[in-house]
Inverse folding.
């Protein structure tokens, strides 16, 4: 989320036409097209964040700027060239790194929260814990995971929470 994504489409010589057909999970479809005989591009229902990366007659790559959850979906490039017709489909999945919060609850137990990540984060503790993480899904597809450190019979003064996520790992320590 927030980065740019470039989707390549096999550049063929003697391109007649290139069409990007975009079907997002949210909202309606859009298309970007290029016709070589008229050296003309057109767009239908595409936001400004989607455009050709370069000139479509040289390289028909698509750039999606400031990727957001609403960009998730299928992106198909169709090329018509003298060698034939070529299709390439991408399924764009957006990763959202969770916000890590570590605090002490009313009973002095460390609580680790990985908020609004996509997909759900994994929470681990440096010392073994009998914790069972709780997950809460949100309407936008993100998930908040909450884990309370519970180590019975040990006197722990400082503990570390590790959040594992495809968008990157994070850790924080706290003394309760």
């Amino acid at each position: 989320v927030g980065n740019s994504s470039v989707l390549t489409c096999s550049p063929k010589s003697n391109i007649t036409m290139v069409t990007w057909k975009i079907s997002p999970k949210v909202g309606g479809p859009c298309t970007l097209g290029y016709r070589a005989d008229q050296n003309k591009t057109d767009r239908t229902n595409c936001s400004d964040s989607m455009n050709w990366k370069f000139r479509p007659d040289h390289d028909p790559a698509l750039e999606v700027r400031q990727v957001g959850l609403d960009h998730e979906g299928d992106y198909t490039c169709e090329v018509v060239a003298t060698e034939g017709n070529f299709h390439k489909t991408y399924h764009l999945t957006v990763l959202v790194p969770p916000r890590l919060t570590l605090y002490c609850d009313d009973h002095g137990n460390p609580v680790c929260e990985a908020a609004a990540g996509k997909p759900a984060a994994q929470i681990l503790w440096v010392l073994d814990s009998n914790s069972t993480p709780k997950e809460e899904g949100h309407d936008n597809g993100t998930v908040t995971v909450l884990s309370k450190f519970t180590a019975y019979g040990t006197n722990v003064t400082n503990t570390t929470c590790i959040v594992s996520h495809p968008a990157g790992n994070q850790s924080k320590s706290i003394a309760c």
Notes: The chain has two domains: 5-92, 99-174. The first strand starts at residue 5 and ends at 7. The radius of gyration is 23 Å.
